[in-house]
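Q: Given only this backbone (493 positions), what sequence would you predict?
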């Protein structure tokens, strides 16, 4: 009885102590497991090769350089022949023919005149209005007012041609000889309709209602200070107030030929020195055109001169233009140079290939246990298919067959000296000839697969490869950036 009692007294103490020990060790054990896991992960991280992937993109090798060019053109400022209020008829930035109505000048703000139009002239007016309506852009609402002025000018021109118009027109040619001599050097002449004098352009050109003190500049007279946009100032000539005789009213650009001057660094000048023509992209509207290119010196600094013979009307209102010189014309798939590897392959004529169960392969010659010759189908992966230049094109055209190809086969598929047989002709070919291909490791499926590339251009970091390479890359493929750390068929993730 006493022994059992003593045992029962000892048991609670032992269990309590055991529970205490176990309870303390649960936290320790959990911490230990976590510590071991973290240590193991750190070891794996520092001992495992880290593979960086790269998504294949499409485009040029590098961005084309952008410049701000100074526009030089042939233009003349025209003045008011007398004082009065102006009504504008020619649309700013539009072409005008010689004798076209530019503006009207009257002693009052509202010109009082009427004109009757023939059905043909009314039809032309309606046609102009329909054309404007179809091309109307709400973001450029100011063009509405320009069109209004142009339409008024056209109506006045129609009225001028009508002898029976209710708004009789007279020319200042009927004025005294003294007045005629005073305006002989002007680029416009005056036609009177009622109490309004209509000023006409004496030459074809593009109308601008502004000046900026660059109108008399030529390529030979431009200075380095003229390229400072911070000091550039443009004066708007449009006004509702009365103008005085001799005041500037409008500017007319009289020649479609124009030039853009761009400042060049020594490096840029060296890069462009051999060019006689260059393609320009205008960032204002993303339009492109080609111009004649030369390098000139202004105040000791190098400038590029680009001469155009068209396109001026789009940029007539711009003195400074942001442009991009399109010099990087090679476009394809862009890959890092560090991704490029070379690999040796067996080369086999395509005529030796056959197909079984929708797989391409070759009939490998061998011997059975009895010593008889036998063939075994060996499926292969074709890494490249290149035209066989050893066969003349004349022979191919004469035979009417497809152009023979050379297949590039992985060296693991055969051993040197293996013989393959054409099952149709019985021709025998011995494996042995090799060739090298450039390529990258594609990892779309989680393991490294060699893909052939054809390099079109390259710089210090990237290469541009063809988009149309058979068995090659496609846009958005993922490839290994550091190809030297990977072997083909390595599982990467």
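A: Predicted residues:
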């Amino acid at each position: 009885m006493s022994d059992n009692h003593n045992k029962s007294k000892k048991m609670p103490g032992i269990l309590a102590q055991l529970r205490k020990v176990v309870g303390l060790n649960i936290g320790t054990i959990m911490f230990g497991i976590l510590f071991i896991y973290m240590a193991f992960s750190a070891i794996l991280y520092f001992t495992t090769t880290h593979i960086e992937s790269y998504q294949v993109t499409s485009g040029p090798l590098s961005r084309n350089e952008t410049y701000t060019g100074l526009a030089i053109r042939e233009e003349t400022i025209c003045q008011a022949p007398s004082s009065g209020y102006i009504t504008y008829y020619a649309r700013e930035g539009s072409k005008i023919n010689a004798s076209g109505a530019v503006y009207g000048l009257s002693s009052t703000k509202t010109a009082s005149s009427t004109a009757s139009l023939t059905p043909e002239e009314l039809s032309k007016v309606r046609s102009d209005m329909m054309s404007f309506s179809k091309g109307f852009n709400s973001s450029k609402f100011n063009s509405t007012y320009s069109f209004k002025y142009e339409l008024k000018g056209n109506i006045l021109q129609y009225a001028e041609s009508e002898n029976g118009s209710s708004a009789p027109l007279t020319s200042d040619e009927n004025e005294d000889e003294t007045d005629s001599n005073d305006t002989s050097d002007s680029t416009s002449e005056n036609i009177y309709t009622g109490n309004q004098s209509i000023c006409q352009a004496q030459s074809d050109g593009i109308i601008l209602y502004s000046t900026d003190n660059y109108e008399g500049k030529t390529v030979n007279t431009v200075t380095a200070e003229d390229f400072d946009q911070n000091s550039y100032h443009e004066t708007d000539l449009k006004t509702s107030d009365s103008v005085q005789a001799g005041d500037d009213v409008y500017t007319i650009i009289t020649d479609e030929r124009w030039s853009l001057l761009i400042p060049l660094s020594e490096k840029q000048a060296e890069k462009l020195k051999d060019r006689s023509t260059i393609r320009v992209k205008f960032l204002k509207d993303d339009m492109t055109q080609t111009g004649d290119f030369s390098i000139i010196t202004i105040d000791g600094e190098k400038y590029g001169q680009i001469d155009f013979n068209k396109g001026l009307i789009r940029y007539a209102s711009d003195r400074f233009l942001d442009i991009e010189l399109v010099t990087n014309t090679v476009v394809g798939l862009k890959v890092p140079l560090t991704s490029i590897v070379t690999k040796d392959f067996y080369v086999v004529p395509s005529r030796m290939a056959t197909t079984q169960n929708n797989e391409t392969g070759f009939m490998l010659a061998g011997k059975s246990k009895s010593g008889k010759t036998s063939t075994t189908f060996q499926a292969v992966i074709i890494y490249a298919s290149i035209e066989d230049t050893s066969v003349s094109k004349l022979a191919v055209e004469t035979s009417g067959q497809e152009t023979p190809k050379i297949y590039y086969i992985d060296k693991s598929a055969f051993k040197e000296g293996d013989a393959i047989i054409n099952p149709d002709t019985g021709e025998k070919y011995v494996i042995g000839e090799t060739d090298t291909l450039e390529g990258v490791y594609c990892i779309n499926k989680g393991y490294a697969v060699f893909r052939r590339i054809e390099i079109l251009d390259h710089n210090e970091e990237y290469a541009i490869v063809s988009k149309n390479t058979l068995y090659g890359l496609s846009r958005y493929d993922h490839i290994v950036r550091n190809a030297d750390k990977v072997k083909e068929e390595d599982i990467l993730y």
